[in-house]
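Why does residue order matter? Because the sequence determines the fold. Keep that principle in mind as you read this record.
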Amino acid sequence: MSIKSRNGRIVVNSDRDHSLTISDGQGKKKDGLYWGVLIFLNRVEKGRCQVIDMKLLAADREYDLGGERLAWLGTADEVQGLEFIRGLLSQETDRDLRKDLVFALYLFHGSAAVSELIGLARRDPDPAVRKDAIFWLGQKASAAAIKALGEVIASPEALDIKKHAVFALSQLPEDKGTPMLMQIARKNPHPRLRKEAIFWLGQSGDPSALDFFEEILLK
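Structure:
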């Protein structure tokens, strides 16, 4: 995808089921098969998009982003959208854009996007991109995401990447990372990782974590 010059403002309404209604701002809806990259123009807070104004980019056209950062690849066909993201990740070298593509993967709902995040967390050559993939895996509650975080911690990865994975476990919804954090705190051979796991267990407020502390402190 080459980026040169073309602008167009649209309005995006997100329904509770995460579907998007796209119009040109004048009440005219776009073709349902039209898809592309949506650029949000203000910010992300605590993992949630606070969206006011958007741009729609088609994959086969050229645009000038004007320094705006990519935040979402919306598509009528998730398979097609993921394929497009995968293609950009394989070609793009700019770190910030690649990290934004990782965030775009997180916003997809489905196991295919989780698999892409897992692949980036394991194999991306840029440690910063691997860290971002690990972080966003920590926002998913799927069994595959939890398993992948455990594999990062058990791998020969650098210590700071492993610590990032421990943190990601602590961010899993519904305290789903607690059992693995307790396992790390008990058995991981690296004292720094055990310390990290104990710290995040202490922050969790999970009743099972309290039982864990009672067990180890009253031995």
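Strands lie at 9-14, 20-23, 36-40, 43-45, 48-50, 54-57, 72-74.
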